Amino acid sequence: MNLKKTLVAAMGAAILAAPLVAAPVLSSTAEAAGEQFFPLIIYRTGPYAVGGIPLANGYGDYLKLLNARDGGINGVKIKFEECETQYNTKVGIECYEKLKNKGDVGASVFNPNSTGITYALIPKTPIDKVPVHSMGYGRTAAGDGRVFPWAFTFPTSYWSQAAAFINYVGEREGGKNNLKGKKIAFIYHNSGYGKEPLPTFTKLSKKYGYDFKALAVDHPGQEQKAAWLQVRRYKPDYVFLTGWGVMNQVAIKEAAAIRFPMDHFIGNWWSGAEADVLPAGKSAIGYIAATFNQPGAGTQAHGDIVKHVYGGDNAAANKAQIGQVLYNRGIINAIYDTEAVRTAMGKYGNTAMSGEQVRWGLENLNLTEARIAELGVKGFMGPISISCANHEGGGKVMFQQWSGTEWKIVKGWTDTMQDMIRPMIEEAAAAFAKENKITPRKC
Amino acid sequence: MEVLNAIFVLPFVDMFSEPIFFAEVVVGGLLTGVMYSLVALGFVLIFKASGVFNFAQGAMVLFAALTLVGLMEKGVPVWLALIIAAGVMVIVAVIIEKLVLRPLVNQPDIILFMATIGITFFLEGFGETVWGSDIHRLDVGIPDAPFEIGGMLLNEFDIWAAAIGAAMVGGLALFFRYTVIGRALRAVADDHQAALSVGIPLKTIWIVVWSVAGFVGLVAGIMWGTKSGVQFSLSLIALKALPVLILGGFTSIPGAIVGGLIIGVGEKVAEIYWGPLIGGAIENWFAYMLALVFLLFRPQGLFGEKIIERV
User: Which chain B residue has its CA at the smallest distance from A273's CA?
Assistant: First the structure.
C-alpha cells in the first residue's frame, strides 16, 4: 500500500468514525447546557378545577420567573409540561408514565396534587428513580425517609396539622387540658385524603379527653345536609373540615345555615382558599383555616412575577389569581422543588439534574431564613430542613381567618406535637415496610 | 343479637326519643328531595317526548347556570340575564335538534343516548371555554337566612326552592295537559309515526321540549349554584337525579317529584340513623339501593307507564 492510498484510507476511516467519536462529546455538551425538566400533573378542568387552577398557575409562574429573571436554575433553563388529570387517579398514572422520561435526563420530581395519585405513584417512583413530593398531602407515613427514600411530604403532614389544630383550640380554651369534656366534630371527604387525620384525632382524644365524632361526606360533596343535621344534634364546640372542591363551599354554607359560629369552624389547608369562602358571602366571615404560607401578594417574588412573567400587567396577574392562598401554595411548592434542584447542583454541578440527583437535593434541602429572604419571599414561608430520615420536615402550621375580603393570619407558627406525631409516623412506616418486605435504610 | 338490636331497634328508639329532631330530618329530606326533583324533571321531559335518556341534562344545568352568572358578572341585570340565559338554552335546543337529533331520526335509542353523551362533553367544554373554570358566586336575591319553627331549624332558601319546584311542576303539568303543544307532545311521546301522520311537527316538538328542559336546567342551576357557587361539579348533580328517575318513573312529572321526595327523606333518615353503624357516608349508595328495591317490584317506577310486552 503506498502512502497516498494509506492517507486516503486513514481520512476515509476518520470521516466515517467522526460521528461516532463526536457524538458522545456533543451529547455531553448538550447535557451540560441542558434543560431541567419539570413534569406538572395538574387539573384545570373537572370537579376540582377551582383548586387546581391557582395551584398550577402559582407553580408554573414561578418556573417562568426563574427562566425570565435568572435564566433558569444556576444558568440551566427550566422546561416544563402540564398534564391534565381532572383529579382522576388513573389519568394521573398515565400522566406520570407519559412524562417520567421527558427532558434531557428525565423528570426532576413529581407533584401529584392528589393523595390518590400519590398513593399510586409511591411504589413506582423507586423503580423509575424519580422522587415524588406530596407537599402537605399524600401518605403521612412517607415522612419516614428510611422506608420511603423516594417520597417527600414536607413541609408538614395531615397528622401534624391535626395536632396543630388541637394545640390551637386548646390554647383558645386556656390550655389543652381544658379540652376535657369538649366536643369536636370532624367532617371529612370520604376518601383516603379525608381519612388521613383520623388516627391523630382518635389518639389525641384519648390523651386530652375531648369527645370526637367523625362524619364522612361522599364525593363530590354537593349535598351534605345529613352531616350538618348531625352536627346540629351533636352540638360540638369546634368543627374541623377536611374537604376539597365543592365540598368546602357547601360546608361553609351549611354551617351558616345551622348558625354554627364561624370562628369555631376550622378547615384544613385545602379548605381555606378564597374560592371556598366567596360563594357563602358574608356568612363566611370569621371562618378559620390552617395554612403553611402567608396570604397576599406583597413579597418581592410576587412583584417579580408581575414584572417578568406578566410584563407588568397587573390585571393579567390577578386573573391568574396571584396572591391567593392556593396560588401562593403553588409558588411555595415550586420554591421547594427548584431549591432542591439547586441543592443537587451544588453537589453534582450546574447541569440538568436527573431524578436521582434531585432526590438527593430534596433530602439535603436546608431552607434557612436567610435563604428565604434571598429568594425574595421573606416571611412568606417557614424555614425547613430535610434529612435522610425525616422527609416531613416537622414543619409548623399557621391559622388564618377570613375577614370578608381577605385572609389574615390569626395564629402564627403553631407547634405540631412532634414528640407524639413522629413516633406515629415511624410506626406506620414500619408497618408499611413489614407489609411490603422493605428493609429500611440506615440514616 | 346485638347487631339485630342496633339495626332494627335502636334507630327507631332514637327517632321516637327525639321526635322534633326526627321531624327536622324528614323536613330537611323533603326539601332536599325537591332539589333532586328539579334536576330529574329535565330528564323526564325529554324522555317523555322522544324516548331518549338525555345524559346531557347535568351539563345543561351547568351550561345554563354558567351563562346566567357569566352575564351577571358582566353587569347585566338579573332579570335580563335570566331572559338571555333562557334564550341561549332555546338556541342550544335548536342546534341540538338540527345537528344531533334530526340526522339520527329512526336510529335505535342507544344511538341517541350515545349522542347525548357527546352533547355532555361539548357543553361542559364549551361552557368552560367561554366562561372559565373558576368558581362563580351566584346571588339572584333569594333570601337564605335560617329560622326556627316548632323547634326545627329551617332555611328560607330551602323553602323558596321547594316553592319554586312546586310551581314549576304545576306549571308543566298544566302546560302538558291543556295547551296545544302539550297535547302534541304527549301524542309524540305515545307514537312518533302516528303523531307525524296527523300532522304534528316532530322537529318543532323536539325543539320545544329541549328548550323546556333547558329552562328547567336553568332553574336547577340557579338553586344548586346558589348553594355551592357555579362550578363544574354542577354537572355531577345529574347523578343525584338517577335514583329519583328509577323510583318515580322516566315518563312521569309527578313521579319525578314524589321520587325526589322519597329519595330525599330516605337517604337522610338512613344516613343519620343507620349510617353510623357502618362508618357513615351511605346516603349516595342508599338512594340507588332504595331505587333498585322499587325496581324489583315496579320496573316502570312508581308512576311510569306500565310495560306491556306482547309476543
Answer: B135
Residue A13 lies in a domain: no
DSSP assigned state of A310: S
Same domain, A256 and A227: yes
Pick from A216, A225, A250: which is nearest to B28 by CB? A225
The more confident residue out of A382 and B52 is: A382
What pLDDT was estimated at residue B165?
Answer: 86
Domain boundaries, chain B: 2-297
Determine whether the interchain pair B134/A53 forms a contact, defined as Cβ–Cβ distance below 8 Å: yes
Picking from B227, B263, B269 by the largest number of A CB atoms within 10 A of its own CB, the best residue to mutate is B227
Q: What is the DSSP letter of A87?
A: T
Residue A270 in domain: yes
- Does A278 sit within 8 Å of B137, measured CB to CB? yes
Which ipTM did the prediction report?
Answer: 0.90
Q: Which residues of B touch A253 (CB under 8 A)?
A: 227-228
Which residue of chain B is at minimal alpha-carbon distance from A250?
B228
Q: How far apart are CA A49 and CA A230, in angstroms?
A: 29
Question: What is the C-alpha R_g of chain A?
Answer: 24
Q: Quote the number of domains for chain A.
A: 2
- Closest approach of chain B CAs to the CA of A402, in angstroms? 16
Nearest to A62 by CA among A259, A319, A323, A333: A333
* In a shared domain, residues A330 and A386: yes
Full residue range of the structural domain in which residue A311 is found: 35-156+295-394
In the 8-state DSSP scheme, what is residue A109? -
Whether A106 has its CB under 8 Å from any CB of chain B: the answer is no
Q: Do B224 and A222 touch (CB under 8 A)?
A: yes
Q: Is residue A225 less than 8 Å (CB to CB) from chain B?
A: yes
- Domain limit, last residue, from A357, A377, A394: A394
pLDDT per residue over A32-81, tens digit each? 458 999 999 999 988 889 999 999 999 999 999 999 999 999 999 999 99
Which pLDDT score is estimated for B307? 65
**Structural domain includes residue A20:** no
Give the pLDDT confidence of A172-211 residue by residue, as tens digits. Answer: 999 999 999 999 999 999 988 899 999 999 999 999 999 9
Helix (H) or strand (E) holding A401: strand A397-402
Q: How many CB pairs under 8 A join A and B?
A: 106
- Check A216 against B155: CB less than 8 A apart: no
CATH pick for B2-297 out of 3.30.310, 1.10.510, 1.10.3470, 3.30.420: 1.10.3470
> Do residues A371 and A317 both lie within one domain?
yes
pLDDT for A246: 92
Task: Choose the final residue of a domain: A291, A318, A353.
Answer: A291
Q: Which pLDDT score is estimated for A6?
A: 45
Q: Which three cell numbers stand for residue B28?
A: 330537611
CATH number of the domain where residue A283 is located: 3.40.50.2300
C-alpha span between B55 and A79 (Å, rounded): 40
Kindly determine whether residue B28 and residue A229, on different chains, have CB atoms separated by under 8 Å: yes
Residue A392 CA to residue A155 CA, distance in Å, equals 6
Considering only the beta carbons, identify the residue of A216, A222, A233 that sits closest to B228: A222
B13: closest CA of chain A, how far (Å): 16
* Contact check, Cβ <8 Å, B228/A50: no
Contact A49 B133 (CB under 8 A): yes
List the beta bridge partners of residue A398. Answer: A291
| Contact status of A45 with chain B (Cβ, < 8 Å) | yes
Q: Taking CB atoms and an 8 Å limit, are A246 and B231 in contact across chains?
A: yes
Residue A284 included in any domain: yes
Phi, psi for B105 (deg, rounded to 5): -60, 140
| C-beta of residue A281 within 8 angstroms of C-beta of residue B143 | no
User: For residues A19 and A144, which has the higher predicted lDDT (pLDDT)?
Assistant: A144
Among the listed residues A365, A353, A356, A369, the one whose alpha carbon sits nearest the alpha carbon of residue A391: A365
**Mind listing the pLDDT tens digit for each residue in B204-259?**
888 999 999 999 999 999 999 998 899 998 998 888 889 999 898 888 888 888 99
